[in-house]
UniProtKB/TrEMBL annotation:
<keyword id="KW-0274">FAD</keyword>
<dbReference type="InterPro" id="IPR027477">
    <property type="entry name" value="Succ_DH/fumarate_Rdtase_cat_sf"/>
</dbReference>
<dbReference type="Pfam" id="PF00890">
    <property type="entry name" value="FAD_binding_2"/>
</dbReference>
<keyword id="KW-0285">Flavoprotein</keyword>
<keyword id="KW-0560">Oxidoreductase</keyword>
<dbReference type="InterPro" id="IPR036188">
    <property type="entry name" value="FAD/NAD-bd_sf"/>
</dbReference>
<protein>
    <submittedName>
        <fullName>Tricarballylate dehydrogenase</fullName>
    </submittedName>
</protein>
<dbReference type="InterPro" id="IPR050315">
    <property type="entry name" value="FAD-oxidoreductase_2"/>
</dbReference>
<dbReference type="GO" id="GO:0016491">
    <property type="term" value="F:oxidoreductase activity"/>
</dbReference>
<feature type="domain" description="FAD-dependent oxidoreductase 2 FAD-binding">
    <location>
        <begin position="6"/>
        <end position="473"/>
    </location>
</feature>
<dbReference type="InterPro" id="IPR003953">
    <property type="entry name" value="FAD-dep_OxRdtase_2_FAD-bd"/>
</dbReference>
Amino acid sequence: MQTEWDIVVIGSGNAAMSAAIAGREQGRSVLVIEKAGPDLAGGNTAYTAGAMRFVYDGADDLVPLLEDPTDPRLPHTDFGAYPAERFAADLLGFNDGRPLSREQRTLIAESYDAVRWLASRGVKFEPIYSRQSFEKDGRHVFWGGLTLATRGEGHGLAEAERAAFAGLGGEIRYDCAAEDLIVEDGRVRGVRTSAGAIRARAVVLGCGGFEANAAMRAEFIGPGWEEAKVRGTPHNQGDGLAMAFRLGARRHGFYGGCHATPMDLFTPPYGNLDLPHLERKHYRKICYFLGVMLNADGERFVDEGRDFRNYTYAQFGRAIMEQPGHVAWQIFDASVDPLLYSEYRFHDAHFVEADTLDALIDRLDGLTDKAQARATIAAFNDAVDESVPFDPTVKDGRGTRGLALPKSNWARRIETGPFKAYPVTGGITFTYGGVEVDEDGAVLHESGTPIPGLYACGEMVGGVFFNGYPGGSGLTSGVVFGRRAGNGAARAA
């Protein structure tokens, strides 16, 4: 068995595999080591919906990326455009007054080229008709700047990247947990693993953040976060961060931030490993913009229609974690039921249904103030401005009037039975704090100089996201910084 390589990549998710593919493209010998077995390989990537956000000028930029460029829906589709300026504005909307970081500018500038590079390696894309478009006047109108997802969603992306790496002659070792880095004469020279030492000329840390580590969540994100559901893999325990910090790596980014999605309250503690990969995402519950969300005190606590859901779900998942008992209820009436995404009809979706609102509220276990819940919905119904047409393809301005907490768009009276309430909690997907890397993806020491032979990508890179993120940016960031780290490691090797 080969024990010395040009590059060892720790992890097998999207960012790690992007680094591995880039390294092999440069002619370097590359080994990927993965803590999990083949059934759980792919890190959090395998749990995602595969959507990627990137800059594009119009349909002509998208069609070359598609698995089926002859799809008969394409001539009747309005993809719009997503210029760099809009991507920048979307990121700034989550920065809490911070200017664009160096990492964010890199993400924007390299986003389209990174996705096009993936497509050249056999990763193909499909328009997200079911979740990112609504039909209007006989056309499919996309909204929110997010248009494409990988074929087979996150699981398909992970499989395609592994196939691309194997096609380039790369090797993956499973059940091979990295335990520490080998350092000689001030340079990283390999990895100590559960299966023995592996020597290398460069090491890429692509093994995720600390979202599966309850103690680290409580320490960095705050009290109560130890109780969060983990949307993805149980293996992202912060091991890569710990290895980097032992070498004096500089902490970078917002450690108090994370991607947290509204999830079914009865989601398993980790992504449901008993389900097929394509079903694991169905525990998400992100159609709150079509109804209202109430906490256990019977109060609304967010503006459900503040923006398109792919700009708010990461923040609203966190908002639910801040409510009493870390729980809320998404309430809908029959008029919007046909618009709810497939996860609301998933065979394991939990909800309460009743013919009247009074009966629905009476059946909500854990709702401590049912009278307030009735008053909240009655006040909401009275405040809906029905003079504005409902249009889910745009921010329609159909809001409420006179409420202390408005609903800014897509407000509809909750009055047509039967009614449904979906209990939800916050499910953490990935963390935002990491290490700082230079333009080659090399990990920087606290002194500001690169740690020789050490590179990082994916969740390991801090400074990309702060108080939230526009949906689909995470996978794109993984490709951008994974490719950079792979190329940088190849040059160093």
